[in-house]
Amino acid sequence: MAPVRVAFSIDSLKLGGAERVLLRWAGWCRDAGWDVVVITRQSPDRDVYPLPPGVRRCLEPSLPAAFERLGWLAFPLRVLQLRSLLRRERCQLAVGVTTLPAVKLLLACYGLPIRCVVSERNYPPAKPPLLPWRWLRRLTYPWADLNLVQTQVTGFWLREHCGVRRQLLLPNPVTWPLPDREPAVDPDHWLVPGVPLLLGVGTKAKQKGFDRLIPVFSALAQETPSLHLAFVGLPQGSYQGVDQQAWLRDKLGQDSDLQQRLLLPGMVGTMAAWYSRATVFVLPSRFEGFPNVLLEAMAAGCACVASDCLTGPAELIEHNVNGVLLPGEASVEDWVIAIRGLLQDRSRCKALGQEATNVRERFSPERLRHDFLEALGPLSHG
Questions:
Q1: Cβ(14)–Cβ(42) under 8 Å?
Q2: Number of structural domains the chain divides into
């Protein structure tokens, strides 16, 4: 019997949780003996993550320059280009990840003998796309043979607002131990041994609420002169039109000592070393889908303090059992009290971190791989 031919569609393989999860799914399908191709719109020069061995890569065909300049008005042509590519690949199953690639994939597959699966990666009302995309999502998502959702809250929203009924609750698998990749950035080159460190991780400072931590750090730093704060993963220079590192430094003010204790190493491929070095991991997000960085930090045994935003952290943290969960509207003083308590009680830090490592079992790749393939297997055979 010929192997199942499955395509995964996403805009690019840039740094991000959706990209990592897609590649994990692609690897699972390859391990099952399927013929797997990852389709992106952006070229490989934007890639951060390597393809799993045995997984092929295809680029969506580019449009003539005159049509490229039309922006979103050229979207129907992109749909036709993707449709042609899927037919050439003779795909039996296709998986679209994040809103725009999912919508495009569903339209491209309409009328073709290809079963479609889609996956939102954020809580939809927290990061709404432009109105035309919201209309198209409402139109197309019910066509999907399966919607993969990370949290029950997201699944409920899709049922209520998009008429989605065929769903599978599939949280992200944990990666443990974390592999190292480039760029190799050693925390010991940034920190004196033994000094306490608050660690935040992410590429999007506003979503992750890093600005919320600036006054918290300023207050705690007066009490603990050796305390440092590191935001790892923020790109250097302009990102989506904003220099996030400069924005955070401006919020910290002119105190040269505090500026020296705010560490912004940029992109880091050696995250295991940073999690190991952290005294407290902090995630004051305004919204999340299912936070990979929190999952990783817990798997690494960090004592974690997170915001109970609309979805995500509450799926992982049981308050005062395996971490600290603060209300989404928590004040600066609430954050100061919570973090101060951990900085002053290292035995509690250690106990919370040890309990946090249970996520390695709760979100084990072996368990979630079984659920994923059990759901996709019947679709792949029609």
A1: yes
A2: 2
